[in-house]
Amino acid sequence: MNEVTRHTVKSFDEDIAQLRSIISRMGGLCEVQISAAVDALVTRNVEAAAKVVLEDARIDALETEAEALAVRIIALRAPMADDLREIVAALKIAGVLERIGDYAKNIAKRASVLAQAQPIEPAIIVPEMARVVVSMIKDVLDAFVDRNVELARAVCERDRGVDDFYNSLFRSLLTFMMENPHYITPSTHLLFVAKNLERIGDHATSVGEMVHFAVTGEHLMDRPKSDDTSTFSSPDTSG
Q: What total number of domains does the chain contain?
């Protein structure tokens, strides 16, 4: 390998490493945002919830940085095969993480509203549900950086547990609202919080599927969803 080629390969490797680093930072911020938003919900801390809303701009900025770097790598390096798949996956993952950040922001907004209402007993399920989705994000980003197909697949399989949490909370809240009609408004906000977390689990699973494809060139089989609340039409609740 001549000096020019060696330099080109080294520069390309550095670009890829930088791209992975940006994606990892985005993932880390998403983990912090989700945890902080749910903690603000549990502690009824309006100031903490407001901070989560403001911090979302950092995730947006990193997405823009990741997109610019990915486009530059493609334009200058003309990557092929595995390298190209990884860069395209990084572009898509950046978009997914930005969306996850929006869900965390929306949870924080609803936390501010719920802080003004009486506590709702079924809310005890939310922190554990949040812990699961945060761990999914952490592991799936590790899988991306390490190109670990087995870990990516394992994350996808854990989405069933998130759906089970959502189904359980959905049923609990329906019962709670029927027994306590004056709690319908805060219960509805809490239901949307749970739906945000369920969607975050879906997005983490999508990232796992992207990682699998980036590494192997093969798509994972479609995963069956275990959300049994399809009779209730839930709108997209990010924002």
A: 1
Rounded CA separation 10/137 (Å): 29
Phi, psi of 126 (to 5 degrees): -60, -45
Structure tokens at 228: 């049994």
Residue 231, domain member (yes or no): no
Structural domain range at position 168: 3-216
Describe the crossing of helices 149-179 and 125-146 by its angle, rounded to 10 degrees: 160
CA-nearest of 106, 91, 191, 208 to 148 is 208
User: Hey, how many other C-beta atoms are within 10 angstroms of the C-beta on 22?
Assistant: 20
Per the domain annotation, does 116 fall within a domain? Answer: yes
Q: What phi and psi values does residue 195 have, to the nearest 5 degrees?
A: -65, -40
Q: How many Å apart are CA 38 and CA 105, to the nearest integer?
A: 10
Residue 140 token pair: 């799936």
Amino acid letter, residue 61: A
CATH number at 59 reads 1.20.58.220
Residues of the chain below pLDDT 70: 1-9, 222-239
Q: Give 52-66 pLDDT, tens digit per residue.
A: 999 999 999 999 999
DSSP string, 156-174: HHHHHHHHHHHHHHHHHHH
Residue 180 main-chain phi, psi, to 5 deg: -135, 75
Question: Residue 138 and residue 118: Cα distance in Å, rounded?
Answer: 33
Whether 235 is in a domain gets the answer no
